[in-house]
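pinging the channel bc i need a second pair of eyes. not urgent but kinda urgent?? the chain im working w is below, pasted from the shared doc
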Amino acid sequence: MRRRPARPVGELDDERLVKLVAHGDRAAFEELYARTSPWLLLRLRRRCSDEDLVAEVLQDSYVSLWRSAGSFSADGSAAGWLWTIAARKLIDAMRARARAQRPELAAAGSTPSAMPSAEDEALTRELDPGLAAAWAGLSPQLREVLQAVVVDGLTTREASTLLGLPEGTVKTRARRARIALRDGLTTEGGTA
């Protein structure tokens, strides 16, 4: 028999709710979903404009949360952990879509390696032309780290988990990316 918390689930913090979800508490899951799904939906929409794909990723993220709540580490934030799940799901979905489109691209004469990612296209449309050019000049490894820590607002630890890199590598790449962007902007602006 499940033991109910002393306080109603609406008064518990997200981390405690995840722990209750790990024990199969449906009310805790519903409360966590109600709290986190609006901001998670917004963050996913910033990375992808395909509403169907975003809805699928959102649903898959909460299914994963339900199934893997027991693996949540108490030393992290529940929101960061959930965003890591969702970001990975989105990346996987975008890669799957790209793989499915490769035959179409080959028939049209395009090569996948020459095409920018959907994330890069969306981001460069929103950036100042000088910043967009500097962004495009970054290597994919530097862009993905900068995207995670600056655009998505992940901590170094969360970015490390998301990207499968050591924290030191994330820090180093983020610093290198910022320097390269600064240098690109300086050169672009004519002050170099």
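so DSSP finds nine helices and no strands in the chain. and Residues 88 and 140 are 17 Å apart (CA to CA). — does that match what u expected or am i reading it wrong
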